[in-house]
Structures are given as C-alpha cells and as structure tokens.
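TICKET: design request
STATUS: open
ATTACHED STRUCTURE:
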C-alpha cells in the first residue's frame, strides 16, 4: 500500500480525502475494518479513489477528526487554534460554539475510535469546557476524560460552581448512597496535605517569618520539615499589601480575606480568595454587586458569610488549619 494512497470518506453528499495509511494508524474502527477483510467501500469510477461511506455523524465533527488524522495525530495547539487556521476548525464552522463542536468532535472520535485524539482531550480541559467534557465523558464512556475533568473542577471548584451549566450536572444524587457532583468536588478539595496557616501581625517572636524583607507579611504557613514559618504566598494582590485587621475564613479549602485597614487608617472594602491548588488570588465581588442569578444562588451562603466578615476586625494573630 502506497503511503500516498488516499481514501474518500463520504458523509451524506460530501466527501473528505484522508490518507489511507494514517486512517488505519489512527482509527481503530478503520483498522479493524480493513484487517477483517470487510470492504464496505465503493469506487466513484473505474480507477478512482476508494470511497468509505459513513452515516449518523455530523459534518463538523467528522471534519475535525479527519483533520487530526491527516495531520498525523496530536500536535501542539491543534484543538484550541484560532478559527480558519490549521487545527482551529474550518472557517465554515465559525457560527458553531465550542460546546457544539466539542459534542460533535467527541461523538465522531468515539465512533471512529481515534484513541490518540480522545487522549489529547485530557490536556484540553478548561473552565470554558470542563462541564461539557465531563458530560460527554459520561455519555460515551470515557473514564480517563471524566477523571481529568473531575481533577480540573476540584482545583477550580468555586469558579466551576458559578457556571450556569453546573446546576444541570450538579443536581443532588437520586439513588441512595450516590454522591452528587458538588459533594464529590467538595470532598476532592480536602484530599491534600494539611497545612497550618497563621493570620495576624507578626513583628517578632516565634511566628516571625523566615526569611522576610521589609514589612513582615500577615499571612504565614508553617513548614514542618524546616520547622519555620514562611509567607503564605508571594503574589499578594496590590489591595492586600500591608493590610491588617481583616476578616478571614477558610471555605472549601479557599482562604478568604475580607476588608481590613492599612497603617494609614485607610479602610479596605475589597474581598479576595486564595486558592492553594493554583497559588492564585481572585477578587471576590461584594453582595451588593449585580451578578447573574445562577451565580448568586450557587454561592449565596458563601457571600452571606463574607458580608459578615467585612465588619470583623482581628487585631491579634489567629491560626487556622488549611489543606493545600
């Protein structure tokens, strides 16, 4: 078989050219078809290219899978490239949103058993697609993809919780003994290594961090191996620099810092959350700021608690157990 031999894949009234060699290499479906001796192929005309007929798939999904096969498999930026560029989907698919394209892509890749493409999806989980990929993994029986989505959603739990699609997948468990998605993610947040965190003013004494320069940080973590205190994070938002007397809480293994004041007596109204899974700070909107209804209902208990913390002042140090 020549490496340049091409096969036409027909779907309804359209044909898509693809390398026969790459088709057999990448698709378990076509590999089994050719090796079994089954020849569900037609010829357009005498001496013309071989034609394989497919039914039941969408054109955009099939086109993305065949583009992947023709490219010889995974390559950096294939799936998330800009529209109209190689690897970013055809320009005619511009009107389709990412959710629709993902659904049709996974359907085609699962039917044609393109394992390398399904494996590539494990590294393509994002906030914009994690819930849809999780749903598709359940529909098509893709446990590796399902676990990849769960790991990602555990890391970004609160951001995922605010997604409008979450209530569709995160509904309470129906059967006795089942665990809801929300409960499963919340439990996953607590599977790390416990870390002792201290919050307050540390100008000296046993909790003085080591090492530090200039103004001592007011948020510390204890490292058991060295038996020393270190700054909790080195990427504080500007709003939190040199802030004292703030309210604090640990919820779902996020550290929330609310309000406070600077040594100039300037009061701070901002609220921030620290995610130890990503070492990132995010600003939290106040309760009086307008937000989508789904987001408001999903995190309403959280924001009620944070509003209470806004008026709390803790001039003395305090300690809390966290899980990182």
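STATUS: resolved
RESOLUTION: sequence designed for all positions
ATTACHED SEQUENCE:
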């Amino acid at each position: 078989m020549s490496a340049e031999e091409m096969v036409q894949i027909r779907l309804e009234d359209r044909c898509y050219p693809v390398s026969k060699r790459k088709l057999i290499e990448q698709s378990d479906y076509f590999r089994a078809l050719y090796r079994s001796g089954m020849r569900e192929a037609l010829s357009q005309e005498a001496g013309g290219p071989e034609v394989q007929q497919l039914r039941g798939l969408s054109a955009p999904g099939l086109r993305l899978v065949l583009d992947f096969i023709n490219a010889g498999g995974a390559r950096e930026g294939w799936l998330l490239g800009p529209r109209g560029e190689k690897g970013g989907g055809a320009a005619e698919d511009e009107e389709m949103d990412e959710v629709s394209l993902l659904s049709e892509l996974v359907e085609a890749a699962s039917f044609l058993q393109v394992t390398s493409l399904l494996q590539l999806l494990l590294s393509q989980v994002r906030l914009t697609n994690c819930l849809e990929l999780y749903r598709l993994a359940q529909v098509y029986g893709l446990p590796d993809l399902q676990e990849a989505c769960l790991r990602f959603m555990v890391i970004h739990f609160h951001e995922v919780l605010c997604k409008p699609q979450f209530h569709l997948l995160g509904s309470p468990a129906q059967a006795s003994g089942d665990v809801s998605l929300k409960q499963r993610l919340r439990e996953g947040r607590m599977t790390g290594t416990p870390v002792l965190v201290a919050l307050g003013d540390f100008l000296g004494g046993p909790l003085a961090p080591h090492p530090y320069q200039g103004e001592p940080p007011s948020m510390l973590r204890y490292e058991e191996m060295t038996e020393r205190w270190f700054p909790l994070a080195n990427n504080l938002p500007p709003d939190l620099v040199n802030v004292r007397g703030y309210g604090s809480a640990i919820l779902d293994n996020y550290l929330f810092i609310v309000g406070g004041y600077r040594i100039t007596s300037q009061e701070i109204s901002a609220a921030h959350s620290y995610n130890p899974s990503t070492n990132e700070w995010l600003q939290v909107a106040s309760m009086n700021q307008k937000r989508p209804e789904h987001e408001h209902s999903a995190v309403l208990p959280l924001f009620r608690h944070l509003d209470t913390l806004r008026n709390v002042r803790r001039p003395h140090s305090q300690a809390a157990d966290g899980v990182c």
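CLOSING REMARK: The CA atoms of residues 115 and 318 lie 52 Å apart. The domain at 6-187 is CATH 3.30.710.10 (Potassium Channel Kv1.1; Chain A).
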